[in-house]
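Predict the 3D structure for this chain.
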Amino acid sequence: MPWCIPYFKVHATLKKKGIMGMNCRNIRYIGRYNARKLYPLVDDKLKTKKLAMVNHVNVPDLLDVVSEQHDIPNIHAKVKGTAGFCIKPAQGSGGKGILVVLPADAEAQKEGVSWQRTNGKPLSQQDIERHLSNILAGIFSLGGKSDVAVVEELIQVDPAFTKYTHQGVPDLRIIVFQGVPIMAMMRLSCEASKGKANLHQGAVGVGIDIATGAAINAVQHGVDITHHPDTGQSLSDLVVPQWAQMLQLACACYDMTGLGYLGVDIVLDKFKGPLLLELNARPGLAIQVANNAGLLPRLVAVESRIQTHKTLGSIDERIAFIQQFLTAHRA
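Done. Predicted structure below.
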C-alpha cells in the first residue's frame, strides 16, 4: 500500500461525490446569492433575534441585553429564579464567548453559590460579571469590536437527545439554498468539546437524512465513528423529533432574511419545540463530511428547478421537492 493517495485520485473521488470546496462556495454561492447589505442581519445575534421575533420565528426567550459596563451588576436580578441562562456575545463566532450557566447543586447552594458551569464547576457573581465585561470589550467579537451581551433563557434539551450529548445542548445545522433545505447535521457536545456543539472543538457531527430526519453517518475530528464517545450511545439510532417543523423553521429563515445561501442552527426544547439559535451567511463545509455526501448535486438541482419553473413555491413545496430529489437519487 502506498503511504499516500495521489492527488488526482483524491480529486476524482471528491468530484464524483459532488464535494464542494471553499472557493466554489465563496464565489458561486455565497458571493452570488448573499447580498452584502444583508450580512448584518445574521452577523449580529441580537439583530437576528429581533428579526425572528417580528417574523414569528420561535427563538429562546430574551432575558436581558447588557450594552454598558455600568449595567453589568443588574444581571443578577434579571436571572434570579430562572432555571439557568446563556450569555452570548452578539457578534461572536465559532461558539466563542458563549457561557451556559446552570443552578448550583444543593450542596453548593448551602455555601452561598448560586450558579455553576455545565461541568459542575461553581460560578461566582464576579465570574459572571467578568465574562460580561470581556464581551463588552470585544474579546470574542469579530474584529475585536466593542460588543453587547445577549442573555437568553436556558434551553431545556428534549429528552430524545439525552443519550446523544454530554454536558451541553445539541443543535441542528441545516444548509438552506434559495429557500430549500438541502443538507442537515446534528452537532453533539462531548467531553472533548468541553460541552460545546462545535465540530472544530471536538464535537460529534451526525449527518441527517433530509427526507426522514434519521442519522446517515457520524464523525468526530473528521473520522467516522459509530457511538458517542462519552455516553456510548449508538449514533445510527438517532432520529430527530419534530423533523417537519425543523425543516419549516429553516425555510422560514430564508424568507425573513433574503439570504440565498444560509446556515440555520436550531435547537429542540422539550417544552417549546424547535427554536432558532442563530444564522450564518458563511456556513462551513464540514457538513459534507458528516453526511458522506457532497453539496453540489443538491445545489445544482435547486438551480435547475428555478431555471425551469421560475419559482420553488411555498415552504411545503420546497421541502417536498428536495425530499423527492434525494429519494429518487438513492434508488
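DSSP finds eleven helices and 13 strands in the chain.
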